[in-house]
Amino acid sequence: MKNRVLIALPKGRLYETGMELLGKAGIIIPPAAGGSRKLVFPDEEGRYEFVPLKPIDIPVYVESGTIDAGIVGSDVLRELEADVYEPVDLAIGICRMVLAAPSGAALPRGGSLRVATKYPRTTERYFRGKQLHVHIVKLDGSVEIAPLLGLADAIVDLVETGRTLRENGMHVVEDVARVSAKLIVNRTAMKMKSGDVRHLITQLDTVVYENPGQQN
């Protein structure tokens, strides 16, 4: 790999917007790379190499130093409490993490409240900050159905437009956190590959902060 900076790209909803942002920053990945079976592929200049990973795995790889940097949502970072640098908020993948419940239903008070979520640590911290104890139900799939089937009284999940909630007869009770994609960097890589890492940060800064509001 010739000591290139190795960067993780998130599979799924952030992949295309992440690639688009890199392109605007002058980091060009050949179109064929995204559709190939190669696990690692370089940009056209050969300064960086990229590896697509599941978002939940990216902070683990970056914190360990196996990968130098990555693009990942702040929802994943907060859930894993990853010990990494976060030099750039990329202003893509913007959405909200919310507490939502069935419309018209009164939420139980105190420890009897059952909350379904993919983010148990974040949810526990949120309610602890309110000095409330709740029963958290950890789910990996769609959480909106949990209140409809009686598994939970409410959910903590991501929303963009709120359409899915409305279609399932639910409403936002309150916001838990703003979510957006971040550039994260391994602490050792920030020192050992300082030149290339800082160049990457500058390239992304130029796009994000000189063109505010233009990212999706």
Keywords:
alpha/beta, D-Maltodextrin-Binding Protein, domain 2, 9 helices
Compose a concise summary of this entry:
The protein has 216 residues and is α/β, with parallel strands linked by helices. The chain is 33% helix and 28% strand. The protein has helices spanning 15-24, 31-35, 58-64, 74-80, 120-129, 145-148, 163-167, 187-192, 194-210; strands spanning 5-10, 41-42, 48-53, 69-73, 85-89, 95-102, 114-117, 135-138, 154-159, 170-179, 181-185.
What would you note in describing this structure?
It is a single chain. This protein is an alpha/beta fold and 216 residues long. The chain has two domains: 5-93 and 180-210, Periplasmic binding protein-like II (D-Maltodextrin-Binding Protein, domain 2); 95-178, D-Maltodextrin-Binding Protein, domain 2 (3-Layer(aba) Sandwich), CATH 3.40.190.10. The protein contains nine helices and eleven strands. It has helices spanning 15-24, 31-35, 58-64, 74-80, 120-129, 145-148, 163-167, 187-192, 194-210; strands at 5-10, 41-42, 48-53, 69-73, 85-89, 95-102, 114-117, 135-138, 154-159, 170-179, 181-185. The strands form two sheets. The protein has a six-stranded mixed beta sheet with strand order 2-3-1-4-11-5, with helices on both faces. The longest helix has 17 residues, at 194-210.
